[in-house]
Amino acid sequence: MKAYLIDSSVWIDVLTDRPGAAQDRFVELAAEPDQIVTTEPVLMELRAGANGLRRLRIESVLNRLRLRGIDPAIDFHYAADLYRNVRISGHTVRSMVDCLIASVAVRTEAILVHRDRDFERIAAVASDLRSESLLT
């Protein structure tokens, strides 16, 4: 079964009921909820930006997902390599956390679903990253 690691850039649109490509794609993926996975950096980003009732809603949704955890011995090193390779290509990644998320997606063979230009820059230097951009 395919696994889809949904980035916080998509989750934000989903959890705030913002119409658009992210919401539409999530509805498609949610038809088979076992294929949706997450990782600690995505959880961290979402928790950091929410409070009150919104945080409770986030927790209730995310606690039901399968976790693709960080493997420190692999993911931190690969994330640093990704960051460096993007810089060598002449671009900048705004968040090293995105490199860590991409590293987890590569290692676990998950398809990274996002709305973030950083991941497009990362994918340009990481042929093993399978991603689905919802940028318009």
Automatic annotation (TrEMBL):
InterPro entries named among the record's database cross-references: PIN-like_dom_sf, PIN_dom, Type_II_TA_system_RNase, VapC_family
Keyword Hydrolase among record annotations: yes
CDD domains, A to Z: PIN_MtVapC15-VapC11-like
Domain of life (superkingdom): Bacteria
Keywords: Hydrolase, Magnesium, Metal-binding, Nuclease, Toxin, Toxin-antitoxin system
E.C. code: 3.1.-.-
Residues reported to bind Mg(2+): 7, 98
Keyword Metal-binding set for record: yes
One Gene Ontology term of the molecular function aspect: toxin activity
Coiled coil: none
Signal peptide (from-to): none
Database matches in SUPFAM superfamilies: PIN domain-like
Family: Belongs to the PINc/VapC protein family.
Physiological role: Toxic component of a toxin-antitoxin (TA) system. An RNase.
Stated name of the protein: Ribonuclease VapC
